[in-house]
Amino acid sequence: QVQIVESGGGLVQPGGSLRLSCALSGDIAHIYHMGWYRQTPGKEPERVATITDNNGIRYANFAKGRFTFSRDDLQSTLYLHMNSLKPEDTATYYCKAQTIVGDATWNYWGQGTNVTVSS
Length: 119
Known about the structure:
The chain has 119 residues and is mostly beta strands. Helix content is 0%, strand content 59%. The protein has strands at residues 2-7, 10-12, 18-26, 31-39, 46-52, 57-59, 67-71, 77-82, 91-101, 104-109, 113-117.
């Protein structure tokens, strides 16, 4: 299993910045896919920035140029640096990790951290 704890959300004015953190623990050696998603009420989660099998970071179009996904050298903490925030970025942001063990795929989600962009 993988345990995930996000932090760093909050209230920020339009044009401001936030850094979200995602602490991973447990079976991180089997993580195949990880990254950030966000969700607003009544909508499906949407991908923000992810990396799969160390093949490079993929950003959603809305995140390109404004958000940066990074991780520490031990790959136990993920970060999402968000700049030039807009009201439409208001959402609950989730960190996700997917592991593959044999033929089984497991998805793990954190509890989410709320981001509100408002003046």
